Amino acid sequence: MDFETILFKKEDGIARVTMNRPHVRNAQNGRMIEEMDEAFRNAEHDPEVKVIILAGAGTSFCSGHDLKLYPVEDGALYRAPNVEGKWEYEREYFFKKMLRTWRMKKPVIAQVQGYCLGAGFVIANMCDLIVASEDSKFGDPVVRMGAAAVEVFCHPWVLPPRIAKEILFTGNYIEAGRALQYGMVNKVVPLEKLETESQAMAEHIAKMPPFAIGMIKQSVNRTLDIMGFYNSINAHFDTHALSHWTDETLHLFEENRKKNKSIKDFIKDRDQKY
Ligand code: ZN
User: In this structure, which of 69, 119, 173, 177 has its CB flanked by the most CB atoms within 10 Å?
Assistant: First the structure.
């Protein structure tokens, strides 16, 4: 596949995958999700790659799913005429492909700046480590569209449950300093140092024995699974799917369609309100 929505670079044992739709703050469309999936798969099977960095071009890491689908530019998500189709699409794209990052053997570092919302919040948290710039903002505003959070409900696993509820009930975000305080990110650095700091972390880990690193990742993630991680996010996926078809969601969806609202508008609204 020729990449159109991401950049892929491999150097000195480090693969750098960069979401590259900066004009929409790297909002993910189906194509981008497929390309990230393929890039991760290539990196996983390439013996030269020891560590992967996931980054976003421009001012933001990722503002979520691309909701500017009026008219539909990106297919199946909203075109699916029924619960079955939408469930299937989201299961494949928004759940399974996100979990690939979590499950792969090699360590992945998210390099985050600006907005990291919704699906961006998910993919950053599917990474093993997060290096964030001081201007980073983490949240999941999809409640404003009537849905019960995004598809992969990692929020109470990466934040204290009360803080998870705060961001989910309000649709508001937390800034980098609070994310660091809660242990959701590993490091907060000035924006101009973001790339060199995440690169330095990747280079350090790339020197470690790769099989041992893979086993450590597996053991930490297995521990979380034994604590219920997979069962809980799996159960939430269906809850999320249900929330797409409530009267309140359909009403909001119709209102937004009339106003031709995009994620940018949601961000603008949120900035005005909070
Ligand atoms: Zn959904």
Answer: 119
Whether residue 151 is predicted with pLDDT greater than 70 in this model: the reply is: yes
Q: How far apart are the CA of 172 and the centre of ligand 1, in A? A: 19
pLDDT tens digit sequence for 105-140: 999 999 999 999 999 999 999 999 999 999 999 999
Buried b (16+ CB within 10 A) or exposed e, 161-187: eebbeebbeebebbebeebbeeebbbb
Query: Token pair for residue 155?
Result: 């929020």
Protein residues placing their CB within 5 Å of the ion ligand 1 = 90
Give the closest residue to 27 by CA, choosing from 60, 77, 63: 63
What's the CA-to-centroid distance between 237 and ligand 1, angstroms?
8
Q: Taking all residues of the chain, what is their mean pLDDT, rounded to a whole number?
A: 90
Structure tokens at 29: 């469309």
Distance separating alpha carbons of residues 205 and 122, to the nearest angstrom: 23
The structure's pTM equals 0.91
H/E element, 140 = none
Assign 269 a pLDDT band (cuts: 50, 70, 90): low
- Assign domain 6-194+206-270 one CATH number from 3.30.70.580, 3.90.226.10, 3.20.20.450, 3.30.70.1450: 3.90.226.10
Comparing C-alpha atoms, which of 126, 121, 168 is closest to residue 145?
168
- Whole-angstrom CA distances from 269 to 88, 172, 215, 262 are 31, 11, 44, 11
